[in-house]
Amino acid sequence: MSEEKKKIIKKKVIKKKEGEPVVEQVKEQAAPKPVHHHAPKPKLKKVTRFYGTGRRKNATAQVWLSIGSGSILVNKRPADEYFCRRPGLMREFNQPFALTGNANKFDVTALMSGGGVVAQADALRMGISRALLESDPGLRKVLRTNDMLKRDPREKERKKYGLKRARRAFQYSKR
């Protein structure tokens, strides 16, 4: 008989007043299933993409790095087209690759939202830095000393009532 079909019968002893024990069946239960102490180990997935998030002002960049030839796509467009072929901005977000020596080793796919082009380039730089750090934790020292992992905390100040902007007052005329 298999172990699943075996039943355990619990018995209860009831003594009568005369002193003779009487055995009575109470209920039937299924036998407990055997415990496997050697459970199969979970299979580890080989990571092929690395993720990093970058922010600056109101701009947010979601960045994925994958091993490749060095192409950079921002919102499904080439980076030089997205950033209007401005060399200063191109240099800005390629800085983490130049510092770590990983130029043309990773393909970058990024989703950008909010802010202007300059803030988006800064956010992309931070996202690339964080993704590089995820791919190789040994790069932390190089990226940190060059402030690639630090978020720029400066934000736009709110407009105050009675003023044109945050601090700009209306023109005052004495006469």
Keywords:
175 residues, alpha+beta, Ribosomal Protein S5, domain 2, five-stranded mixed beta sheet, two-stranded antiparallel ribbon, 4 helices
Structure description:
The protein is an alpha+beta fold. It has a domain at about 50-145: 2-Layer Sandwich (Ribosomal Protein S5, domain 2), CATH 3.30.230. The protein has helices spanning about 80, 85-100, 115-135, 140-145, and strands at about 5-15, 20-30, 50-55, 60-65, 70-75, 75-80, 105-115. The chain has a five-stranded mixed sheet. It has a two-stranded antiparallel ribbon with strand order 1-2. Helix 2 runs parallel beside helix 3 (about 115-135).
- Counting helices, strands and paired strands, the structural category is alpha+beta
Topology pattern, helix = H, strand = E? EEEEEEHHEHH
Task: Give the termini distance in whole angstroms.
Answer: 110 Å
Strand order, largest beta sheet:
3-4-7-5-6
Name the poorly predicted regions: none
> What spatial form do the alpha-carbon principal axes imply?
extended
Using the coordinates shown, work out and report the CATH topology of one domain.
Ribosomal Protein S5, domain 2
- Mean residue pLDDT: 84
Please give the count of helices.
Answer: 4
* Oligomer type: single chain
Radius of gyration: 34 Å
Could you give a short account of the major beta sheet? Answer: 5 strands, mixed
Helix content: 10-25%
- The name of the CATH architecture of one domain is 2-Layer Sandwich
DSSP strand content: 25-35%
By CATH reckoning, the class of one domain would read Alpha Beta
Secondary structure: number of strands: 7
